[in-house]
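QA checklist item 7 of 12: single-chain prediction sanity check.
[x] sequence parsed
[x] length recorded as 399
[x] structure emitted
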Amino acid sequence: MSDERRDVVVVGGGPAGSAVATFLSRRGRDVLLLEAARFPRDKVCGEGVSPEAWRLLDAMGASDAVRALAPHPLRGMQLVSPDGTVFRGEYRGHERMGFAVRRIALDGVLLEAARLAGAEVREGTPVTRLLREDVGVETDVAGEPCAVRARVVVGADGRRSVVARSLGLLRENPRMRRFAVRGYWEGVEALGPFGEMHVVGGGYCGIAPLSPSRANVAFVLDRREMKPAAGGLERFYREELRRRWPRLAGRLDRARLLEPPRAIGPLALDCRAVAAPGVVLVGDAAGFYDPFTGEGVTLALRTAELAAEAVAEALDRPSTSPLPRLVGYERARDAATRDKFRFNRVLQVAVGRPDVANAVARRLARRPDLADRLVSIAGDFVPARTAFGARFLLDLLLA
């Protein structure tokens, strides 16, 4: 078995892996990124990206390349409650808008940013296991095993992370067992510069406009509601749209489904820790909580930024292999995400109860300023902790 050594091995070439490889390479580190797939490759995702992502893309040197994809601008979010009440919030106070773009294009641009920054990228190179005693990974290329040792391994290999599961850190959330089904449509009526969320009892459907006429239409349902999909996913997808979201289905009457829909789930994953000696986890490998508000890409880039800072600082210290557990990264990640995760959980409770969803939507429809603040929190540029302040909650209850 061949063997090689690097400063950093990044497992996974999605947004989180590409970002951490870019940030570390721009700091002059020797980075090897291993990606099981060959790009372009698809990823089931809501595909709405919040405004805060632009700051991170700037830091990666990837903003111009993303703009070249002509992403559809998003001024904010619109929510339709079960009784049809509509409220709309805008990303006010931010110099740039959010956007929506196909992940198959965005991920390729971000992986190329890692290459341009100096990382070595090997596509079609699956990691088969994490090496623990002398930290590294084992890969399998054309049946030939290869060990790659490193001072630190970054697990960015998503929901089925080999790295996180080798450490026994990642598991499915036993209570939140939801699945998403996504389709692309051409000819959708009434699209504009707003992402949309249509809530019904037991689930919700999101629309990310990709152009004035094309959209990602994805719904999320509990696992028990997915059983009929065994009889054919496309038929199930079309029937559920008509049955649960008839207003939305009417906008698709003259539209064309561009390709067979895809499903993914269960969505919610719990991770007991995001660091171990010689290992850090980023992106979905560090756990995933169905965001509802659609900022998963921004979260991946932000946690990658934090991980890169912690890893670079540790690599600057006198050489030790493996690196000790980077508790500083764990603390920084927790500080950056805990309020947002709490915010998402509160939203999940609200949308899970039609009476609550209707009442909140009616209040926010009367108070556009509160709707803007709620959407700006979702857009990651207003601190999520403000959603739990007494004044905000009082305003919401009395609106």
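[x] summary fact logged: The chain is about 35% helix and 25% strand.
[ ] second reviewer sign-off
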